[in-house]
Write a structure and sequence with these properties.
Blueprint: E1 31-35, E2 38-41, H1 42-51, H2 53-59, H3 65-92, H4 98-125, H5 131-145, H6 150-175, H7 182-202, H8 206-215, E3 224-225, E4 230-237, H9 240-251, H10 256-263, E5 278-280, H11 288-295, E6 307-309, E7 312-321, E8 325-326, H12 333-358, E9 363-365, H13 367-370
Antiparallel strand pairs: 1-2, 1-9, 3-8, 4-5, 4-7, 6-7
Length: 374
């Protein structure tokens, strides 16, 4: 399933982005790419490249030419996407109201103030006698090395805030071009349900992958529960002595839920959403020791030995086998409608952006230049 397009922050391309502050005495005004009549300079590309380099190694193998080039491509494309939105907004006559303009100025000033505060922090850490005077010197040195004045620096932040607001308005205009009907939303639910049934029946562990993604807002909620899962509840305590005492009392016939209410430290057990217990199966997103102990419970009502994990000491009770079932559309209609509407808008947005990005009459890349940045 397609993920929501992530807007590229203009701050990554600002001359004053953190990675650019190491700076070079002269700006590289060669053109790395063009979008219509808008230019992306090599300096902007270098700043964006360096600004994200710390995180790039998580997603790219920067020890290989292929990995570096993939990262370079993503950097230039993110800059092109930003400039494309600004270009298309200009073509469409998207502007800011007086109120929005004032807000952009205020936001830009706040961003500049944060930028200046970073020099105050450096001055304090350096033990300067006159912190503000030393911060001003650091700021001046940085701006001079980048060929900028204070007023130009402030304006850069204001321009960035203004552009971000224009981009948001342009994005919203594109999103507004799509508004699925009730019938279309239900058809999307039916299609997704069938996809999940086919997948989960073949690989039940995939259910928990969907469940994990949904918890982070990255995917549709699971719409189908396959065969083979069970429901469990647990008592979690901090020390082994208490856990052993509770297990003994359970073996002597005391009520599990009563002891859970008295001693349990797991907040999940108090959540109404887990009143029927945690759903457990192969591939579930639990600590390994907990999962193994839960899956070892063969019969409804079975209670595990004390299980130690990094969270503490667990006593797990199997409640029942979970029946295979579909999540009816009406059960989660509001959530599903919101999700599928967002998905439809996202897919439309991606299609529009892809078409613009592929238009060679609008986009020109000078690969031989930006490939030299490492």
């Amino acid at each position: 399933m397609k993920r929501m397009f992530r807007t590229c922050a203009l701050l990554a391309a600002l001359l004053l982005a953190a990675a650019a502050l190491a700076g070079c005495a002269a700006q590289d005004e060669r053109v790395a790419a063009r979008v219509g009549d808008r230019e992306i300079t090599m300096q902007l590309f270098k700043n964006a490249y360096l600004n994200s380099l710390t995180y790039a190694s998580i997603y790219y193998d920067l020890t290989t030419d292929e990995g570096v080039e993939a990262y370079q491509d993503d950097v230039i494309n993110s800059l092109i996407q930003t400039e494309m939105l600004l270009y298309q907004a200009e073509q469409a006559g998207v502007t800011l109201s007086e109120e929005e303009e004032a807000e952009a100025v205020a936001d830009g000033q706040a961003d500049y103030d944060s930028f200046y505060d970073s020099f105050l922090e450096q001055a304090e850490q350096a033990g300067a006698t006159d912190v503000r005077a030393y911060a001003n010197k650091l700021l001046t040195d940085t701006l001079v090395s980048n060929g900028m004045t204070v007023s130009e620096a402030k304006q850069s932040y204001i321009d960035s805030a203004r552009n971000n607001m224009i981009i948001e308005k342009m994005q919203n205009r594109i999103f507004a071009e799509v508004e699925p009907t009730e019938e279309e939303l239900y058809d999307m639910y039916e299609e997704e349900l069938q996809v999940q049934k086919d997948l989960f029946d073949e690989s039940p562990a995939s259910y928990f992958t969907y469940d994990l993604y949904a918890a982070y807002g990255n995917n549709c909620i699971p719409l189908y529960i396959p065969e083979g899962f069970i429901r469990v509840r647990q008592i979690l305590v901090e020390d082994e002595e208490t856990a052993n005492e509770l297990l003994t009392r359970l073996m002597e016939g005391e009520d599990f839920e009563t002891l859970l209410n008295q001693y349990n430290t797991d907040p999940g057990m108090a959540d109404e959403a887990n009143a029927d217990g945690y759903l457990v199966g192969e591939g579930a997103n639990y600590l390994e020791e907990f999962l193994e102990a839960a899956l070892a419970l063969e019969n409804d009502g079975d209670i595990s030995p004390v299980v130690e994990t990094t969270s503490g000491f667990h006593i797990i009770k199997r409640l029942r086998a979970e029946r295979s079932r579909e999540i009816a559309y009406d059960e989660e209609k509001e959530t599903l409608d919101e999700y599928f509407t967002s998905l439809a808008k996202s897919e439309h947005y991606t299609e529009v952006m892809d078409a613009w990005m592929a238009d060679e009459s609008l986009v020109t890349r000078y690969e031989e230049l930006y490939r030299t940045v490492r």
